[in-house]
Amino acid sequence: LKSELVTPVTPGSALISVYWHKELNQIITGSVNGETHVLYNPNISQGGAKTVMLKAPKRRHIDDDPNLTMDLSHGIGGDAVILPGGSAPSAASFASRHPTIGLTASGKSRDPRRPHIPNTTPFAKSNADEAYIREHIPLSGMREEDPREALLKYADKAKNDPMFTNAWADTQPKTIYAELSDEEEDGPDKKKVRR
């Protein structure tokens, strides 16, 4: 076999896959550095890369040319600004001539990199005052209220005018509790010891 044409596809980088498409008559290669190339003969190949290459190039806007635009995300270096007098601008002299530029009406900085300060709340300064909680936070008094006393407020009304148990008022027996003596301990029964 005698090679008619030798084409270096990716110099300095090895090819990892080569595929020949018999219907398109084109060779597709993939290399280690992630590049993909299509090799074809415009006289013999049909479709594929030939169709793409026959189309007119897409019209581009002047701003799409990277040679004519600057990437401002990195910022402009101090040496990029040149004054007609030949001297570099002085930030101190500008600030002394315009003391209010860069400040809002309240005197705060307009610097976009300045962090946002959250609104101050009564809890942000220190621990909340007990009187403030009692006045401004609803149901905060329930913590000090004894639940037994709250139920005993309605005990007389429930005894005199029972709403739910009135149907059994005639047949309901009176509850009799055993009286506790000083000698008896009010506690759980001791468990039997297993042997």
Automatic annotation (TrEMBL):
The keyword Repeat appears for this protein: yes
Instruction: State what protein this is by name.
Output: WD40 repeat-like protein
Q: State the source organism's domain of life.
A: Eukaryota
Q: Which UniProt keywords apply?
A: Repeat, WD repeat
| Gene Ontology cellular-component annotations | nucleus; site of double-strand break
Which residues lie within the region annotated Disordered? 103-124, 164-195
InterPro entries from the UniProt entry: WD_repeat_GAD-1
